Amino acid sequence: MTSTADLGPFEPAALIRNSGLRVTDSRSAVVDALRVKPHSSAEDLYRVVALSLPQTSLQSVYNALSDFVDAGLARRIEPAGMPRLYELRVSDNHHHLVCTRCGAVEDVDCAVGGAPCLEPSQGHGYVVQTAEVTFWGVCPACADDVPLA
């Protein structure tokens, strides 16, 4: 799996092919949109893709994203009260900061080691495969605009 930080020269077709998927114009455009606009919803990505590929459809973007998640090329995050968001950073178990005012999302590396959050205090018999931690707060831009209550 590849993170956007590890991509070097960015080649959407190579990423798609290396994930075991067939390369199409639509998939290439969605990967490119994810590169420039990580943590985006399918609708936001559709708006970016439609600029360069006007014949695409929102359903085509949803299909590509589903294929990417299944193939391990993209990660889907689901912050409470927000639409599903997608990103290409999949090579680690990082977390996210979400602004409660504007909805901005930032990556946050794990505090210790590779994936400390994969060992819950009580496993209840589950085999844990991944963990999602979301930190909620106010981003610097929003904190500057409106005093905290």
Classification by helices and strands: alpha+beta
C-alpha termini separation: 42 Å
The average pLDDT value, as a whole number, equals 86
The count of β-strands is: 5
Envelope shape? globular
Strand coverage percent: 5-15%
Topology diagram in text:
Elements: H1 12-18, H2 25-36, H3 42-52, H4 58-71, E1 75-77, E2 85-87, E3 95-99, E4 105-108, E5 134-137, H5 140-145
Parallel strand pairs: 3-5
Antiparallel strand pairs: 1-2, 3-4
Helix pairs in contact: 1-2, 2-3, 3-4
Question: Could you walk me through the main structural features you see in this protein, from its secondary elements to its overall organization?
Answer:
By secondary structure, the chain is of the alpha+beta class. Helices cover 34% and strands 13% of the residues. It has five helices and five strands; from the N terminus they run ααααβββββα. The protein has helices at 12-18, 25-36, 42-52, 58-71, 140-145, and strands spanning 75-77, 85-87, 95-99, 105-108, 134-137. The strands form two sheets. It has a three-stranded mixed β-sheet, with no helix packed on it. A hairpin with a 7-residue loop joins strand 1 and strand 2 (85-87). Helix 3 (42-52) packs across helix 4. It is globular and about 45 Å long. Residues 1-8 have low confidence and may be disordered.
State the gist of this model:
By secondary structure, the protein is of the alpha+beta class.
Which labels suit this protein?
single chain, 149 residues, alpha+beta, three-stranded mixed sheet, two-stranded antiparallel sheet, 5 helices, 34% helix, disordered N terminus
